[in-house]
Please model this.
Amino acid sequence: MENPKLLDIKNLSVSFFSEGTENKIIHNISYQLYPNEILGIVGESGSGKSVSSMAILGLLPKTISKITQGSIEFNGRNLTTLSQKALQHIRGKEIAMIFQEPMSSLNPSMTCGKQVLEILLQHTSLSKSEATAETLSLFEKVKLPLAKRVYGAYPHEISGGQKQRVMIAMAIACKPKILIADEPTTALDVTVQKDIITLLKQLQKEEQMSIIFISHDLSLVSEIADRIAVMYKGDIVEQGTVSQIFKSPKELYTKALINSRPSMDDRLKQLPTIDDFMNDSQNSEIITSEERAQNHKKIYSRPPLLEVINLEKEFLSKSGWFSKPNVFKAVNQVSFKLYKGETLGLVGESGCGKSTLSNAILQLNPATAGSIIYKGNDITTLSESKMRQLRKDIQIIFQDPYASLNPRLTVGNAIMEPMKVHDIGSNDNDRKAKVLELLLKVGLDDSYFNRYPHEFSGGQRQRIGIARAIALEPQLIICDESVSALDISVQAQVLNLLNTLKQNYGFTYIFISHDLAVVKYMSDQLVVMNKGEIEEMDDADIIYSNPKKEYTKKLIHAIPKGL
Model:
């Protein structure tokens, strides 16, 4: 007897409309979800993964989009024909969704506990005290540390990983039959990501729930899914079991997705991108251990560019109006040296002090104790005019390029603005010529100069952020999770770009990331941080092949490996 389908999507097509023009986003796709199954949907941004999942819940914007063809059957009911009121009874209760960005999905004016409580009171017959107890139980189920504290905390008071766990607690609160998880682990640490994957699998078994797990990371999907559907430009190009997709992929695009992630074994001179595979133009040259050793000999024969000595950063926190403030050491006795032309990898879980350390180096949030020696001078004691010069010398590329670009400035003006502040270029025409040259260097063309940030994809915006950072001709660039929100292929392009710029301009990088495969590929030396302290520090390859500390072993073990 055939296994009954819980969800049956038949010949679904979705179009978006702009100024009378129809843009077909989803082209005639069909797939099924069976009871007690995890289906992985993979593909790059713009492939239609999120649009097709939003269509299931009727969440597509009514004024500009339309399901033009096909049906979405859930337990035998066609969801495309239901009224909004009927869909409201299904959303959250029978089909729930976890979104990629928990900060924009959670209500900033309500405590985390109340947001889960609200769902339970709306969709179940629990009393308020029962719903409160159930919320705390859910927080413990999703392994939130100090569940009671999180219950009373507002979203801005907890970390990204904790916010995502609150979202999962909300989604599973009513024990839905289907959970749609849209990139639920993209911005999370590798260990938290592994915990979330394990948690979702465990919840799926306990609750006999089916999951649609959406991601651009095939290796990650392979760790949770039973079957995988691969999407490309609005089509499902391949479907099969995890083993079929990984061991014998039929489509070139699927092969490209599998191979675009940095290898943990060989270090390629150039990471392959999707386009390289599609055009059969990938460069398979590797950096030999001899070449790497020779380069290191050259780098480490010079005096250090930056030296951090016994750095500490304390924060004060109060638990009430009249209580004594608690001292929290975010960075504790951290010391390391950074050399010109080096890429120093900085890894560790959320809250380990990576960003606090980088903010102290940038003097955005000065250290409480210790010294930061840059080019022989202690920058913790600099005058304002000297600090201005330092701002030019040390730049940062942020994780979210959209939030770091002014939406009211054109791309050209956004890059020219800091150049004017630091007197780079003799006049605006001179600066404009330099910006146009920079845009070409980061793989964009001169038509981008007069366009606004909202007109670009995440990968293009990150290139704009890179162009703005290098416009000031800095010596040191801090890359703070600068590729973590990007597709695998776009990530490969940006990493290749950073390495090319490093070779051409002699940049020095501090490369912060929770993606250990990426950090290994980029780094010469590696610093592993845990609870504000350095856990382990050595050559990146030595740490990966022979980690000494249990914490480092745990981080490496958590990297999604694929099959």
Remarks:
- The chain has a mean pLDDT of 87.
- Residues 178 and 375 are 57 Å apart (CA to CA).
- The first strand starts at residue 7 and ends at 18.
- The chain has 22 helices and 20 strands.
